[in-house]
Amino acid sequence: MTDLGAPQSAAASACDQRYFGALAEGRFEIPRVCCPHCGSQDLEWAAPSGNGTVYTVTIVRRAEGDYTVVLVDLEEGPRLMSRVVDMPVEQVRIGLPVRARIDAMADGPLLVFAARGEVRA
Predict the structure, then answer these.
(1) Sequence-ordered list of residues with C-beta below 8 angstroms from that of 3, at least 6 positions apart, any chain
(2) Smallest Cα–Cα separation from 28: which of 51, 5, 1?
(3) Alpha carbons 118 and 78: distance in angstroms, whole number
(4) Which architecture characterizes domain 14-115 according to CATH?
């Protein structure tokens, strides 16, 4: 049976190899499907700033420990699903300013977010 709590990372399909390859090299890149202004599909992978804001948050309660699942709006526009780390899950709130980082996990690199600046309880 699959452990649904385990992060999906380097074991991903071939279509994700570029994304996880960049993470393994310490880089964070995302693809753009089409230009939001003109609709052109002639786009490349981009390295965003990593700064974003929590759009929504869910706390997953497990015997091994609680964690968050968040949607983060990057400053450049894309919205990503990930986790917020290094703070109590109860303090993760909608509107929290965050910054992306790459954590080394047992099964490969994982893009996570940490709070930027002071966090108010």
Answers:
(1) none
(2) 51
(3) 24
(4) Beta Barrel (2.40)
* pTM, entire model: 0.75
Contact partners, residue 42, CB within 8 Å, separation at least 6: none
CB atoms within 10 A of CB 7: 19
Residue pLDDT, tens place only, 38-97: 777 776 777 889 999 999 999 999 999 999 999 999 998 889 999 999 999 999 999 999
β-bridge mates for residue 108, sequence order: 105
Q: Is 81 helix (H, G, I), strand (E, B) or coil?
A: strand
Residues 25-34 have pLDDT tens digits of 888 887 766 7
What is the Cα–Cα distance from 84 to 11, expressed in whole angstroms?
A: 22
Give the H/E segment covering residue 79. strand 79-82
- What residue segments make up the domains of the chain, in order of their start? 14-115
Q: What's the half-sphere exposure (Cβ side, CA atoms, 13 Å) at 105?
A: 17
Contact 19, 11 (CB under 8 A): no
